Amino acid sequence: MLNVSLKTEPSLSSRSAGSRPYVVYTPTHYHVGTAVPLLVMLHGCTQTAEDFAAGTHMNQLAEQYGFIVVYPQQTSTENRNRCWNWFTPAHQTRGQGEPASIAGVVQAIVEQTSHWTIDRSRIYVAGLSAGASMAVILGATYPDLFAAIGVHSGVEYQAATNLTHALKAMWHGGPDPVLQGQSAHEAMGEFSRRVPTIVFHGTRDAIVSPIDGDQTVQQWMQTDQLASHGTYPADFHRPSSMIAGQVPGGYAYTVFSWTDPTGEEVQVYWKVQGLGHAWSGGSPNGSYTDPLGPDASLAMYQFFMAHPLRRTSGPSGHDGSLWRNLRRALASCF
Q1: 129 is catalytic
Q2: HSE-up (13 A, CA, CB side) for residue 81
Q3: Do residues 291 and 250 make contact, with C-beta atoms less than 8 angstroms apart?
Q4: Is there a domain that residue 121 lies in?
Q5: 311: domain range?
């Protein structure tokens, strides 16, 4: 098993789960025994875990608010550009491929109780580009694990099933998001539940078309409607609220949100005017970032904290038995 010590800062360490390397950030003043959230961050193509950490400044937020961040690393062996293989059917279902591998990283973190105490109701995943597209897949395939997901410049669930279709989806949009929403709901299987989603996309993204942002929101709208048995009657063209904003000296943006009949926010969509294929509000210390946009990292963290996992469905009854079932399923994958 690979286990590399990383000395760049005292609270950052490299480890592995099976063959999947990952980097963990632990806040300086964290004490084992204090249950805290876990945020899984998935980098984009050509990036590394360390690069993504620097660009999103998520570690600084973890230091400020007291949560753990894990950055799974894609390897050049699995994809020469270090892209997550979101466009391959082998990596689009539960219990196999990269979704199972990333879930295995979460399992490894949760079970290392001598290092961390994770609040299992507050485990989240977010990503950029290929990482965002994999976050979408994880929301559909492991809704019992991830309480909510963040999608920055990504595509809808199963937008493509090969590389040729992936390029088409990135440039021109994917299939009908209503149909893909149904597919995502089917992928949830017996773990079906409403998955809160926050989406960021730039209007000048030349790598992943802005239409993909719209489709991602629409896909999850359909998935969540099905998972909630019709109790979440959202309409993409009629958001519950729409707020316009402006970063001083930077980009204008509009935030759309949709709530359920009780007023609980289920989906949020940030459209950033003039933003290209870059993490909004990110640091120039990392690649694919643009500091002129609103702070996507802070917005995602705040959205996540408003959405703990409520275990209202699934075959396992309560948190402990659900986790044991998940652990057994993941063990069979490695």
Answers
A1: yes
A2: 8
A3: yes
A4: yes
A5: 12-331
Residue 84 belongs to some domain of the structure:
yes
Q: Is residue 3 part of a domain?
A: no
Q: With beta carbons less than 8 A apart as the criterion, state whether 266 and 233 touch.
A: no
> What is the helix (H) or strand (E) element at residue 69, kind and residue range?
strand 68-72
**Do the domain assignments include residue 7?**
no
Q: Do 316 and 322 contact (CB within 8 A), yes or no?
A: yes
Domain count, the chain: 1
Is there a contact between 179 and 193 (Cβ–Cβ < 8 Å)? no
CATH number at residue 306: 3.40.50.1820
Catalytic residue (one of 129, 183, 257, 280): 129
Backbone angles phi, psi at 26, to 5 degrees: -115, 125
Q: With beta carbons less than 8 A apart as the criterion, state whether 134 and 141 touch.
A: no
CA separation (Å) from 128 to 200, 240, 297? Answer: 9, 26, 11
Residue-level pLDDT, tens digit, the chain, 334 residues: 223 223 234 455 666 566 789 999 999 999 999 999 999 999 999 999 999 999 999 999 999 999 999 999 999 999 999 999 999 999 999 999 999 999 999 999 999 999 999 999 999 999 999 999 999 999 999 999 999 999 999 999 999 999 999 999 999 999 999 999 999 999 999 999 999 999 999 999 999 999 999 999 999 999 999 999 989 999 999 999 999 999 999 999 999 999 999 999 999 999 999 999 999 999 999 999 999 999 999 999 999 999 999 865 444 334 554 555 566 555 555 4
Q: Which DSSP state fits 151? A: E
Q: Which residues have C-beta within 8 Å of that of residue 208, sequence separation ≥ 6? A: 129, 153, 154, 155, 170, 201, 277
